[in-house]
Design brief:
This protein is an alpha+beta fold. The longest helix is centred in the middle third of the chain and has 15 residues. Keywords: Acyltransferase, Transferase.
Amino acid sequence: MQIVELTEIGAYEEELANLFQEIVAAGASMNYLYPMQHVTALAYWHKVPSEHVRLFICLLDGKVAGTVQLHLSDKENGQHRAEIAKLMTHPDAQRKGIARKLLQHAEQAARQDGKTLLLLDTEKDGPANVLYQSEGYVLFGEVPAFAQDAFGKYKDGNFYYKKLI
């Protein structure tokens, strides 16, 4: 298992697009509805790496098995914080510790960038809640009908923070 930071998606664009399509097809609430078109997934990934977004991928046997993003605040008064976003593990690679490794890697990158506060949101009844709580994230709120899942059903959202100091 290897975690790599991408500053451009380059050679990984097809694997990233396929991963995103698989995650959406599995019903994940990732801001897109099923069926996610391949061109939509490609367009999404081409916009990700930027001045304020760090993209990390997990390679397992040389293939993209998961991703996570660290969204750095561009607010003058928010330079101490970042958001964990789009933590995904390919359905064929789940239950192997990939999401945990990616999350921990993003946290370490945030620390190295001088961030002291991380935020994230996830589906209230989703399996990611167990991971986030086990890694020390604190639930600070729930919002009813926060987002639609991939099939258009409204889902409540959980919001977490973690202090890195």
